[in-house]
Amino acid sequence: MDVDDRRRYFIVGSVILEIVQPLFRTRLENDYRSKGMGSLQAFLSTLPVIHILFHLRHGNAYCCKDNRNCRNNSKLPLIYCQWDLLYTETPGQPGHNCHCKFTANPVQVNELDITLVSLILLNCCHLGPSEKNAVRKLRRYKNDYLSHNTKGKINETEYKSLWRDLTNFVLQLDPNKQDDLIRIEKRPLDEGSFEYSQETE
Asked: Where would I find the DZIP3-like HEPN domain in this sequence (predicted)?
């Protein structure tokens, strides 16, 4: 395998795991704290948030509360393991399919992976159009170049345009990340650390 292709993959993966993921988590935390909530659990317990997330996991459901705002999404992007991380079903009420039978778990922000935190950011937080676009693009880069990259390499041509876009979207969300981006791009290849960090996500 070309060492440079492997190194480029390592750089992009490091940016995703070391900069993008914490950046998304911080953005979510800042959003709910700005609304006077001291924890992610409190945020997840609010009616608008649980209602939105419920309909991103459960199709063809109409809630007993706020049923005018029920959405029957054709795609259900919130998968069961993500929903179960966030909420626990309260026993009772058999046959009742509504968000009111779920309670938010005491989950911490650092337990959310990029996919889940980006889903919450895009659907439950106040983001401007450019922020939404940056979150969507960065999540797509994570999927395209890290999660679904079975070869573990990125060629030079692809990397040049990717690096420009990747850094641009990171800096849109936090202009103070320039030095971190430079540090990651210049550091030597340490595959052991990178593979360990991937396994722990």
From this structure: 82-193
